[in-house]
Amino acid sequence: MISSPDNIALLEARALCFLRQDEPVFGPIDFALHGGEIALVEGDNGSGKTTLMRVLTGMLRPGEGEVLLDGAPFSLDTVAGAVVFLGHHLGLKVDMTPRENLHLAAGLYGRRKGTDESAVLREVGLAGYEDEPVRQLSAGQKKRAALARLLLLPARVWLLDEPYANLDRDGIALVNRLLEQHAARGGAALVTSHGAVSFAGGEPRRIRLHA
Ligand SMILES: Nc1ncnc2c1ncn2[C@@H]1O[C@H](COP(=O)(O)OP(=O)(O)OP(=O)(O)O)[C@@H](O)[C@H]1O
């Protein structure tokens, strides 16, 4: 179990705001996400959910405010191993297999103790597809291959942008199960979704963005 002193959030936003041509896309917003917490980012189309995720991964620079990771100011160096992002673009190399994609990611960011590529691919339901080129997988199978990365890498913070898209009923249950396991291990996750989300652990926290 990964632990952090109780009072220090794994991920914290203070008066965070993103501006495009001097107009706020979202914010200012404040939140603190501690180990064991899952929060849902809610808002209408265009309210800035994906933009918030991109700011939190360092792909976009905040207009105002700050982001803290484990209590320290966020930088591209600290975010690399500590945060894993699953976005609309799944970040898979389509000419490589799921196993090769995972191997590449683990080479960059390390592996969670006690697991390996075969085990996580089995866990996401891709047994038998480990060595097929990603371009030959269905949309849902590609999504599962991207979810396997969450299980393999040791990152404590998961940022999941519409993780349920393209998944069947089993896949949706899989995402919820992975989130519950991650929270039980002391990880934290921020999730955007337009669909209904349910966790055995009860109602997730909600962070609302307004268009
Ligand atoms: N690359 C871009 N250039 C200019 N404007 C952009 C760009 N990307 C997004 N926007 C605008 O920023 C605003 C927020 O977009 P964003 O994708 O963050 O919303 P969202 O809440 O994730 O929406 P959805 O629910 O439709 O996925 C929208 O008004 C959008 O038009």
CATH topology of the domain at 38-47 and 79-208: Rossmann fold
Spans with pLDDT under 50 lasting ≥5 residues? none
Per CATH, the superfamily of the domain at 38-47 and 79-208 is P-loop containing nucleotide triphosphate hydrolases
- Overall form: globular
**Count of alpha and pi helical runs:** 6
Major sheet: 5 strands, parallel
Strand content: 15-25%
Kindly report the average pLDDT value: 91
CATH architecture of the domain at 38-47 and 79-208: 3-Layer(aba) Sandwich
Taking the alpha carbons of the first and last residues, their distance comes to 38 Å
Structural class call reads: alpha/beta
How many beta-strand elements?
9
Strand order of the largest sheet: 6-7-8-3-9
| Bound molecule types | adenosine-5'-triphosphate
Q: Assign a percent range to the helix content.
A: 25-40%
**SSE series:** EEEHEEHEHHHEHEE
- The CATH class assignment of the domain at 38-47 and 79-208 is Alpha Beta
Protein name: Heme ABC exporter, ATP-binding protein CcmA
GO biological process, one term: cytochrome complex assembly
Pfam family, one: ABC_tran
GO molecular function: ATP binding; ATP hydrolysis activity; transmembrane transporter activity
